[in-house]
TrEMBL record:
InterPro entries with a match to the protein in the record: Flavin_OxRdtase_Frp, Nitroreductase, Nitroreductase-like
One GO MF term attached to the UniProt entry: FMN reductase [NAD(P)H] activity
Stated name of the protein: Putative NADPH-dependent oxidoreductase
Membrane-spanning ranges: none
SUPFAM superfamilies: FMN-dependent nitroreductase-like
Family note: Belongs to the flavin oxidoreductase frp family.
This protein's UniProt keywords: Flavoprotein, FMN, NADP, Oxidoreductase
Entries under PANTHER family matching the protein: NADPH-DEPENDENT OXIDOREDUCTASE, OXYGEN-INSENSITIVE NADPH NITROREDUCTASE
EC number: 1.5.1.39
Superkingdom of the source species: Bacteria
Record-annotated Nitroreductase domain positions: 7-163
Length: 243
C-alpha cells in the first residue's frame, strides 16, 4: 500500500501488541523524521520527549482512566511548546527587544509542536505502525512536568503513542474541512448534517448496542468533560493575550 492510502486508512490504536516491539531501525527513522520537521522561522520552538522506559510508561498510564493506551505502546512521545532555546538567544543578545510571552510566541510554539507530532505520526504510519494522538496530554501538565522533568517556558501540547497494532480497527469517517479559494461559513451546517449520516452509521457498526452519537452532541459532550490545565499552562508561559 502506498503512503497516501496508508494515511487514508489510519485509525486510532488504543491497544498495542506487547509481544512485538518496534525495531531499532523503525525507532531511528521516526526520530530522524521528527528532527527533520519544519520549524517556523527556524526558531526550533518545540521539543519532544520520547518515553520508552516501561516503568515510566506504566506510571503515565495510571494518571487517569483515559491513558491506558500508554501502558501497552512501545513509545510515548510528548510534544512541547518550548521557548527555552529562544529565551537563551534573547538573553544572549539583549539589545533586541522581544516579548516572549505574547500570544504570537505561544501560537508559533504550539504550531511547531503539532508539525513535529504530525511528522512523527506520518513516519510511523509509513512504517506500518499504529498510532494514537492524546489531546488529554493537556490535562496531565502537572504530572508530566514532575515525571518528565519539564522546566522553564515549556508546556506539553499533544501526546502520541506508537506501537505494533494488536487488532485491526475501523477507520472513522471524517467531515469535509476543505474549502476552495474562499471560506464558506454558510456551508457548515449542511456539511455537519451530511457527516452525521456516516458518523452515526459508523457508531452503529462498531457498537450496535450503544448510543450512536451525532457529531454535535459527541463534540460538546466530550468538550464539556475535558478539564485542561489551562491556568497552569498560562502561568508557565506567562501568557499576555493583549500583546
Amino acid at each position: 500500500m502506498d503512503f497516501i492510502n496508508k494515511l487514508k486508512q489510519r485509525y486510532s490504536v488504543r491497544e498495542y501488541d506487547t509481544e512485538n516491539s518496534i525495531t531499532d531501525e523503525q525507532y531511528k527513522q521516526i526520530i530522524e523524521a521528527i528532527n527533520s520537521a519544519p520549524t517556523s522561522s527556524n526558531w526550533h520552538a518545540s521539543s519532544v520527549i520520547v518515553v520508552r522506559d516501561k516503568k515510566i510508561l506504566a506510571q503515565l498510564g495510571e494518571v487517569n482512566k483515559y491513558t491506558g493506551a500508554i501502558k501497552s505502546c512501545d513509545i510515548f512521545l510528548v510534544f512541547l511548546a518550548d521557548y527555552n532555546r529562544v529565551n537563551i538567544a534573547k538573553n544572549t543578545y539583549t539589545e533586541y527587544q522581544y516579548n516572549n510571552h505574547s500570544s504570537e510566541t505561544y501560537t508559533v510554539a504550539v504550531g511547531d509542536a503539532f508539525i513535529q507530532a504530525t511528522t512523527a505520526q506520518d513516519a510511523a504510519i509509513s512504517l506500518g505502525l499504529g498510532t494514537c494522538f492524546l489531546g488529554l496530554t493537556r490535562t496531565m501538565v502537572k504530572d508530566l512536568n514532575e515525571i518528565l522533568n519539564i522546566k522553564g517556558q515549556a508546556v506539553p501540547i499533544i501526546g502520541l503513542t506508537i506501537g505494533n497494532i494488536k487488532n485491526n480497527g475501523l477507520v472513522k469517517p471524517k467531515m469535509n474541512r476543505v474549502f476552495e479559494n474562499k471560506y464558506d461559513f454558510d456551508r457548515l451546517n449542511s456539511d455537519i448534517n451530511e457527516y452525521d449520516k456516516s458518523l452515526i452509521a459508523h457508531f452503529q457498526k462498531i457498537n450496535p448496542d450503544k448510543k450512536a452519537w451525532s457529531y454535535k452532541e459527541a463534540t460538546i459532550k466530550s468538550a464539556s468533560s475535558y478539564r485542561m490545565d489551562t491556568k497552569l499552562i498560562e502561568e508557565i508561559w506567562e501568557l499576555e493575550l493583549s500583546n
